């Protein structure tokens, strides 16, 4: 074991769910249990667990690999093994050798509707896919190639989350063992953006704002959601007076995004703009509260109206997060606000694809590393994962009506929404009551905060401004709530 091992926080010592689960493997480890077995570091263990769970997720797609993607629309839904990847191999022109963003597609789509870096990822996988054999065989190979590339992304995510909180590496098991992570990883290409975002969070935790910005810009070039992390970071740096570091991060993000996008923007402007126009023109779709409203109330909301209201709701959430940041009794941790802002985008958006849960899993593990709350939320997401496929099975099985009717699917959406809101609520509670924060109970301030960790506040509002305190010199009462929620001891930080 490392010489610093005694300083590591062990979830089996502070989390009753982790302690109970560890009985399956012989109970909580002692401080000297693995002396001499230095190869089995937390990073390696968690990376291997993540790869194993990813492989199980691939096995779960086996019914579709053997024919469900090709023979009959409903079987890929009844087996809950649907993936966009094989369908888009031919549907977006990769089978025909079309170049994304430059070559027009047949039908209404015209151009590839993905951000540039994701399009590059898809194209590289197409280059690695042999063009011989039947189209079914090519689609199978294309899915396998993408799965291999996405598995590398999964390993990066697990390693980055494990290393972000130096004293809490075992929190990475939340990501590695998340059932929704295994089930949704090969539905689409979201893991690329998630991996880049996780790497960016790691760089910020190491006080490397330029590297953070570069990686976040690349993540935004693969998916839009990482852009929202700059908002809470701005307010945190405002409260701590860290304008130089934020400016460095912002320049890095803008620069890397431009390097990826400008060549396509100039050479193929119509193809480049497709992702943005498609996002605006897309109507109310699966998984959103908008769909429940339109179905239950029989509302016919125009897409422009939904876009406007959703944007306003997101702005309200941003203002709320900013107010929470500036008025909290102690400066919130970066991971907490990152989780809240991305969750707000998911909750207010007009569509929620099942793989979007991947955006939140690493952030949730850093924001609220508590197994009970994490598993409650994951149970809700697995329920939604099954619900959407059963609903699609119902709508595609004709008169047989195999699957979940509309009312059942609406309930699955509600479960997803309530599960996400629940996790948001406990994170907000941790911010307002920092003595209940699992990470801060172990003596840390903001291990994912980098230059913000232990920094002095220079601008606060409300009760927190009387007077502002150094984050690491908080002298109020601190309660260790123990494993069962009862005060075990009281001390000062």
Which structural category do the helix and sheet elements fall into?
A: mainly alpha
Percent of residues in beta strands? Answer: under 5%
Broad shape: globular
Radius of gyration using CA atoms only = 23 Å
What is the count of helical runs? Answer: 22
Helix fraction by DSSP (H/I, runs of at least 4): 55-70%
The total of beta strands comes to: 2
The strand line-up of the biggest sheet is: 1-2
Q: State the order of secondary-structure elements, H for helix, E for strand.
A: HHHHHHHHHHHHHHHHHHHHHHEE
Q: Give the termini separation.
A: 28 Å
The residue-averaged pLDDT reads: 88
Unreliable stretches: 1-6, 32-36, 467-493
Query: Main beta sheet: strand number and arrangement?
Result: 2 strands, antiparallel
How is the secondary structure organized here?
Layout: H1 11-14, H2 16-22, H3 42-60, H4 62-68, H5 75-78, H6 84-91, H7 116-127, H8 135-164, H9 172-176, H10 179-184, H11 190-205, H12 209-222, H13 230-240, H14 243-267, H15 269-281, H16 289-296, H17 303-327, H18 334-348, H19 357-367, H20 371-396, H21 406-432, H22 438-441, E1 478-480, E2 489-491
Antiparallel strand pairs: 1-2
Helix pairs in contact: 3-8, 6-8, 7-12, 8-11, 11-12, 11-19, 12-14, 13-14, 13-17, 13-18, 14-15, 17-18, 18-19, 18-21, 20-21
Region (Disordered): 468-493
GO cellular component, one term: plasma membrane
Pfam family, one: GT87
